[in-house]
Task: structure prediction
Amino acid sequence: MSAFINEVPMIGAQVFIEPGQTPAEIDTWFSVMRKNGLDICRIRMYESYMHKPDGTWNFTLFDLAYKTAEKYDIKVFGTLFPATTFEDVGGFKFPRTEEHLKSIAGYIKNLVTHFKHFKSCAGWVLINEPGSVSIPNERFSQDRLNAWKKEQAEATVNSKSYNVFDFKEERFLVDYNTWYLKWLADEIHKYHPGSHLHVNNHNIFQNAQEYDFPKWRAFLTTLGGSGHASWHFGYFKRDQYAMAMSANCEIICSGAGDIPWFMTELQGGNNTYSGYAPMCPTKEEICQWLWTIIGTGGKGGLFWSLNPRASGYEAGEWALINFLNEPSDRLLAASSVADTIGKNQQLFAQAKPVESGINLIYIRETLWIEKKLQAGGIHYEGRDVGGAMKSVLGYFEAFSEMGIQCNIKEINEFDFSKNNYRGSTIILAHQISVPSRHWKNLEDFVRKGGKLIADGLTAFYDENAHCIMKTGFPLEDLFGGNIKEFKMVDNLFNVTLSDPNLTLSAHLWRGSIQNKSSTPIATFNNETIATRNTFGKGKVFWIPSLVGLGSRMSDYENLIILLNKEVNESISTLPFRFRAPQQKMLMKTLKTGNSFITILINKNTSLQKVKLEIKDNFKPTKLFADQGGLISHTNIVSIAPEETIVIQWD
Result:
C-alpha cells in the first residue's frame, strides 16, 4: 500500500464501527463493499470503545471489523481517535495537558502493536481533520505557545521600524499543527516502522492558512483531505459543487508535491441535522466528484460513510447504504466508477494531470491580515474574510470555463529555483500581503521569462500588515510603477482596457498608478488604472482593481478574453481545451503513456454540444458516460445535464 505512486485509484468508504453492532451486520457491510467494487475503507479507532475503566483493553469489536475486511480482501486505514466525549463528532485537535499527551502515546502503543499484524491493515490516519482556527485556551497549548515565543529570534523584517501587528500566534498555529502531526507519526513508527501514514485536512478554503504542506511531506506517505459539500463548500452554490471539488483537489494536489494524494472523505449521503447546508448528493454528483479527484491526479476517494452510525450526532446520516443495508443509487454510481477503473487499471495507474503552466497563488499572510483587519459594518465580499480566496477562485472558475485546469498553490509551494520560466504564469489575485522574503523571488520569476498577473490590492502590505505602498514600494521596478491611492467605487463597476479593447467587471476598489517604466492600458479621469511592464525576459500585467472577484460576481466572458491573450504562451501547447468558453462545464486532462484522458462534466440544465480544441489527431474511445454521452466528428462531445464523460484519446 505504501507504493502508491503508480497504483490504481481506489474507491472506498468509512465503515462506522460502534458498540451494539452484530457480527452479521459488520459482515453485511463489507460484503456490500466487495460486491460494489469498493476495495479500501477507513475505520475510526475509538479508544473509548476499547479502553475499559479498569485500565484493560478489549479490541474484540474492532478485531471483528479487521478480520471481516480480510475475508473480503478490503484494506483498512485506521484513524487515530483517542478518548474523547461521546458528543465530540470530529475529535480534539491538540492535547490538553502533558498527562493527556502521555495518555495519547499509551493509546497509540496499544492500538498499533495490536492491529499492525492484520493483513487488512493498510496504514494509519494520524488525526481526523487537523485545523483548529485558533489556539486552544488550554494549558498544554498555551505552555507550548509561550515556549515557542521564547525560541523565536527577533524579527528580521522590521517594516522600516514602524509599529506593526503581532502575527506570532498565527505563525505558531502553523508550526503547532506540524509538530503534533509529526509527533503522532513518530509515535506510530515506534511500533510500526515504515507504515503508511496519511492525514485529511478539512475546510480547505478557510483553513489553508494553518497548513504547511511542504513540511508534512517529510513524514506522510500520502496527503488527503475532506471535501464535504455540506460542511466545506460555503463559497459556492449547489450547481458549483463540482467546481468546488475541483478547486479543493488542486490545493491538495499542490500541497502533496511529490507524494501521492487521495480524498479521504466525501459526502456519501443525506445530512439531516449536521452540516451547514442540508443536502443529499445525487448519483450524478457522486460520479462528478470521483472523476474530478482522479482527473486531478488523486489516487481515489473514500466516502463518509458506508453505513450510518446509530446514535449520537450524525445518527442515521451521511451513508451510501440505506437503513436496510441495501446499496443506494449513490453507491451504485460509485461502483460504476470503480468498475471503469478496474477495466482500465494500467491506464489509470500511470495517469498524471497535464501541466498548464498556470499557477494561482494564495499567500498565508494575506489570509491572516484579511482576518485581523475585520471591523464589521456593511459587508462587501472583497473586504470580508474570504475575499482573497474568492478572488483566486474567480480566476480558477474562468480558466475552468476555458477547459483549462490550473494549479492553486500557497506561495511557499511554488518552485522559484528554476533557470527558465518561459511559458509559466503566476496570478496574484487580491493577495493583499506579499511577504518580503518573496519580493526577490517574484522578480527572479519574471526576469527569467515568467508572466505575472496581479489584481486588486495585491502587495498592499508586507507580512506585518505594514503598507509598503506608502513607504517606498519594493516592487516598483517589477510592476513598473507605484500606487497613488485606492478609491472605493461600488459593489460592481467597469474597468475599460485599450489593449485588448474590452470592459471588465470590477469590485469595490479602483487603484490609480503612478507610471514609471510600464505601458498604460487603461485610464479613468486621466489616471492610469492598468499597465503592462517588461522586466528582464518576462512581463507583468497589473490591474489594481478586483476584476477576478468582480467577474465572479457577474460573468467571466470578458475576463476569459483577457486571459486568452495574457497567458497564450502557457496554454497554446495544451493538447485539449474548449474551442469556446463553456459556462458550467469542467474538463480535466490526464496524460497516461502515449494516451490522454479527458473528463468532462456538464452542470447546465440542458444538453451541451461541446467543441474541443485538439492539438493533434487523436482517436477517441469513450470509457465512461453515466447518461450515454456521444462523441462525433472526433472533436464534438454531446453531454447531457449533470453528465460526466470520460474519453481516452490515442
Residues 33 and 560 are 44 Å apart (CA to CA). The first strand starts at residue 10 and ends at 14.
